[in-house]
Amino acid sequence: MLPESIPTHFDFAGRVDAWGDKTDILLLFGLSILFYAGLTWLSRYPQKFNYPWKISENNAERQYHLASNFVKVIELRSVWLFAIISLQMIGIALGQISSLGYLFVPLVIAITSATVIGYLILASRSASNGTR
C-alpha cells in the first residue's frame, strides 16, 4: 500500500523536489497509455512525416520503413521510461530508495540522443544513395 504522498518531480540529479498525492501516479500511467496509443497510430503513417531530405520513388519504401521503426523504438523506450519512473516513485515513497540516481537523467538523454542520431545516419545514407 502506498503512502498518501509520493514523489511527483525530480531535479536533474534524480533527487525528489516535489511531492504529491498518491493518485498522481495514475497520471503517469495515463500518459504512458496516451504516448503508446499516439505513437502506435503515428507509426502507421510515415508518408505524412516531415523528412529533412527528398523522398523519391527510389528511397520512399526504405525511408518509410526506417521512420516507422524509429517511432516504434521511441514508443518502446517511452513506455519503459514511464514504467521505470513509476517503479522508482513507488520505491521512494515506500522508503526503499532515496532518488532516481544521479545518472538517470544523463542516461535518458544519452540513450535518446543515440537513438535519434542513429536513425538520422541510417536515413540520410538511404536518402543519398536511393536504396530500398
List keywords for this structure.
mainly alpha; 132 residues; two-stranded antiparallel sheet
Low-confidence stretches: none
Strands in their spatial order, largest beta sheet: 1-2
Counted beta strands:
2
| Structural Rg | 19 Å
Report how far apart the termini are.
53 Å
Helix content: 55-70%
The string of secondary-structure elements, in order, is EEHHH
The major sheet is characterized as: 2 strands, antiparallel
Count up the helices: 3
Question: How are the elements arranged and paired?
Answer:
Elements: E1 5-10, E2 16-21, H1 24-43, H2 60-93, H3 104-129
Antiparallel strand pairs: 1-2
Helix pairs in contact: 1-2, 2-3
What does this structure look like?
- The chain is mostly helical.
- It has one domain.
- Helix content is 61%, strand content 9%.
- The chain contains three helices and two strands, in the order ββααα.
- The chain has helices spanning 24-43, 60-93, 104-129; strands at residues 5-10, 16-21.
- Strands 1-2 form a two-stranded antiparallel sheet.
- Helix 1 (24-43) runs antiparallel to helix 2 and helix 2 (60-93) packs antiparallel against helix 3 (104-129).
- The radius of gyration is 19 Å and the shape is elongated.
- The N and C termini lie far apart (53 Å).
- The model has no long low-confidence stretch (mean pLDDT 93).
